[in-house]
Amino acid sequence: MISERMQQKLNEQIQKEFFSAYLYLSMETYFTSQNLSGFANFFRVQAQEERDHAMMFFNYVTHVGGKVKLGQIDEPKSDFESIEEVIRMSLEHEQFVTKSIYSIVDLALEEKDHKTNAFLQWFVTEQAEEESTAESNLNKVKLIGNDGRGILMLDAEMAQRVYSPPPAAQMK
Ligand code: FEO
What we know:
single chain, mainly alpha, Ferritin, 5 helices, elongated, binds MU-OXO-diiron
């Protein structure tokens, strides 16, 4: 069983992960409108992963006998003006999610809730990877600037990203 406070924080995280999927889908539409199908693919895959993250929290709350309460999902930004703006925002958003995950870990440690702490460790690792990828994307985009050939090369690289579902054990 989890505490009321923990249940609330986990429910808020479900909402944040679904919002992340929403935000990344919005980013996908920006790139589609710019004819950058590789970047669009990258964010579509990202959105799929975020839905998985939301469901992992959803399933965990249920699994430990808690009650899932779904909240309202805000409208994501959709009026992007440049590739760099989108990529920078994706990094800032991941940093925000990392802080959120850390705050749940802090609560788990405070409450000596080792089970939830163990569950959260997958997300700690995942966030480190996501921040690193977003940072690398931003560095490349800054380096390329307005060079059309560079943008197309990066678009081709982004097209290679393939969705891979999270470990089955996490999805129960
Ligand atoms: Fe599920 Fe990218 O945070």
